[in-house]
Amino acid sequence: MNLKLIYIVFLGSVFGCFAQNDTLHNPYFKSYDDKITTSVYYLDTSNSFQIGFDSEGKKKYLALTPNRREQLGVSLSYQFADISFGFSPKFFSQNKDNSDSKLFSFNTRFYYKKWMQSFTFINQKGFYVSEENIQAAFPRMRTTKIGGSTSYIFNDKFSYKTLVNQNEWQTKSSGSFIPSFSFYYTNLNLNDVPNSSNGDFYVFSVAPSYFYNFVISDRFLIGSGIALGAGINDIDKVTSALLQLDFNFKLAYNTDHLFAFASLNTVSFVQNGDAEARLNDNISTLKFSIGYRFDPPNKVKEIYEKVNQKTGL
C-alpha cells in the first residue's frame, strides 16, 4: 500500500454534548456543532527526542529525529465526532526516501462543561541519530507514546474549540487561564538486534497556561497560547525534574460555510541538566486546512437524535 501515514482524529465525545448547550447562545462565540464540517488539510507532525549524557567529563547530546511524514488528508465532523484520514504522497520532499518509515497518530478530546481531557497516541518507526556533524540512520528504531492532559477552562467567554478546530468561532476577543496536568509514557526500542532492550520514560507535569483569541474582524482572528510548567521524569526508574513549555498559534478565516486556517502547536519537555541521563521530548504539528460547512441531511439528523435519546444525553 502507498499509505505510509495514518492520522485519525476523534475530537470530542458523548461528553461534548453537555457543553454544547452552554455554547449555542454565548455572545462571545458561535457554535457549528449542528453543521456537517468537511475539510482537506496538509499536516507535518513528528515526535523528536534529545538524549543527553556525560562522556569524559563533558555533556554530550544525541538528537533523535524521525523520518518526518508530510501528509494530505480529509476530515469530516458532526456534533461530537471529528474524524480525519490522511496519506503521504511521494511527491513531498520529506517522503521520497522514507519508504520504510511509519507514523500512526491518534488524538482525541473530551469536553465536559469547563473540563477538557485530551488523549494522544503516537507510534513512529525510522529515525536519524546525530551528534554535531555525524549522522546515522536507524530505520528500525521505533518509539511509542501514550498519554494526555486534563485541563480546566476558567473563562466562559473563551472558546478553546476555536483554537483546535472550526466547530466554534470566537466573535469577540477573549482569553482564559487554563491550568493542566499532563502524563505521558514513551517506549523507545532500537530494534537493531534480536534481543534489543527497551527504554521506558514517564513524564508527569503541571503547567499553568494562558490562551487568547484576538478577533481582527468578523472573518479573521489570531489565536495563541503558551504554557510553562514543571514536573518529574522517570527514565528506567531514575527520577529527575523537568520543565514543560507549550506553544500554540493559529491564523484563521471563517464564514458560516467556508473556512481556512494555519496552525502551529508544540509541546516540549526539557529535563534537568543535572540528571545523569537526560531525555528532552518534543511534539510538533504544523497544519494548513480549508473546509466547508453545510446542513446535515434529515436522515443523519434522525440517526443522531436516536443515538442521543438512547444515551440519555
How would you describe what is shown here?
By secondary structure, the protein is mainly β. It has a single domain (5-311), classed as Lipocalin (Beta Barrel). It contains three helices and 18 strands. Strands 3-4-8-9-12-13-15-16-17-18 form a ten-stranded antiparallel β-barrel. A two-stranded antiparallel sheet has the order 2-10. A hairpin with a 2-residue loop joins strand 15 and strand 16 (238-254). The longest helix is centred in the last third of the chain and has 14 residues, at 298-311. It is globular, with a radius of gyration of 21 Å.
Overview in brief:
The protein has one domain: Lipocalin, CATH 2.40.128. The chain contains three helices and 18 strands. The protein has helices spanning 16-23, 161-164, 298-311, and strands at residues 5-11, 29-31, 36-55, 58-66, 69-78, 81-87, 102-112, 115-131, 134-152, 168-170, 174-177, 180-189, 198-207, 209-215, 220-235, 238-254, 258-271, 278-294.
Which descriptors would you attach to this protein?
mainly beta; two-stranded antiparallel ribbon; 3 helices; Lipocalin; 10-stranded antiparallel beta barrel; 313 residues; 64% strand; disordered N terminus
CATH topology: Lipocalin
**Which structural category fits the helices and strands?**
mainly beta
Question: Whole-number average pLDDT?
Answer: 80
**What is the share of helical residues?**
under 10%
**What profile does the largest beta sheet have?**
10 strands, antiparallel, barrel
How many β strands by DSSP? 18
- Which descriptor suits the 3D outline? globular
First-residue to last-residue Cα separation: 41 Å
Q: What share of the residues does DSSP label as strand, in percent?
A: over 45%
Major sheet strand order: 3-4-8-9-12-13-15-16-17-18
Number of helices: 3
The secondary-structure element order is EHEEEEEEEEHEEEEEEEEEH
CATH architecture grouping: Beta Barrel
